[in-house]
Fold this sequence. Notes:
Elements: H1 2-36, H2 42-54, H3 58-77, H4 79-99, H5 110-130, H6 138-148, H7 154-173, H8 176-197, E1 203-210, H9 213-224, E2 229-234, E3 241-249, H10 251-264, E4 269-275
Antiparallel strand pairs: 1-3, 1-4, 2-3
Helix pairs in contact: 1-4, 1-5, 2-3, 2-7, 3-4, 3-6, 5-8, 6-7, 7-8, 9-10
Amino acid sequence: MANREKKIRIVLLDLLYDVIGSISYAVGLYTFAKMAGFAPGGLSGLALIANHLWGLPIGVTTLVLNIPIILVSCRILGKVFLLKSLKSMVISTIFLDVVFPYTPAYTGSPLMAALYSGVFLGAGLALFYMRGSSTGGTDFLTMSIRARYPYLSLGAVTMGIDLLVISLGGVVFGNVDAALYGLVATFVTSTVIDKIMYGLDAGKLLIIITNHGQLVADRIGEVTGRGSTAIRARGTYTKQNRDVILCACSRSQSYTVKNAVHEIDSTAFVMLVETSQVFGEGFIEGE
């Protein structure tokens, strides 16, 4: 009985995220991008181009364009992910083609439209991703390509596909500004996705190689209240034993920690590494 209730809660929560995400996605695509005359990256951008040229409905066109990609990706990405994504695509299609054509559209500055389009598209996509779903399109393509060719950069593959669509949009809409607005919207979309999914929990990991491990760790504790971990290591080039200090901290504390290290050891080797999430005391409590 408990498992059944849990499954029902998960389904309802997935549906809630799908609805809110679809509304946000439709606002970004229909309310802002369509009326401003530019195409963001991905299949949604192609659907906007088709809408501009032939008046085809944006949602249905996106869904149709996804069909061959779904067939190709089915074995690689798995049925569960594809079924959840298909549900998200159908719901977003309903909002794009049935609901939002009857809502007022933004008719102000195209640059503001590009910025807000990116914000709403990013928020909508982040909500889909957080529930293990997506709107298909380039998501399926990039994941499939990465699964087949793991040595390729996922960001480079995505960027290549998006640039192709954005450039096509510039040609179809007949001006360079359309391509530039598409680039702005795509950049903002990526930034918002990262901030929603990781940004609030992001931090820095400092990897410090020094001859004065305990003194450095003590100084870090004094100036930030952060603990650290010391590892004894041996340099393969110098053949000398040195301390490696690991310290996780917030972005705002990273340079304070770096300065504290160099107060003790000006020759210390310091590396700052971006972390998406940090779990533990002083950060996110472990689940």
